[in-house]
Amino acid sequence: MSAPPDTTVEIRIPSDAEYIRIVRLALAGLGARLKFPYDDIEDIKLAVSEACNNAVLHATGAGGVVVRCTQTPDSLEIEVRDQGAGLSAALGARPPAEELSENGLGLFLMQALMDEVALEPTEGGGTRVNLRKRLPRCL
User: Fold this and answer.
1) Residue pLDDT, tens place only, 63-104
2) Which residue among 65, 120, 122, 136 is buried most deeply as judged by most CB within 10 Å?
């Protein structure tokens, strides 16, 4: 029996880097359930960890970080949302790798590891990072 389309899992963590481990463990389980190859699961975990690290660094207030994973018929879509203002400055064209500062390397990794990456400000001064990885064809 296959899973219904548009299945969503949401995780809320405090703005503390220690909690990113929970997100990584959940992604490993979800990736395995969706039959992603091991390398793809590791790529997803790394990309989402980078988005979470940025959110933890820039998040303010009690809102913490929200990670929403949605299985669509052809992909896994992951949204990482915070209430900070720092990552919004990263919007725009990707600079060449050699011009990236240490802080910009996370965005470069996300773009290299995922099929699609989009950043957008949220209402109230936060940032939403949308990551997409196509499902393996051999399901």
Assistant:
1) 789 999 999 999 999 999 998 655 444 444 444 444 444 556
2) 65
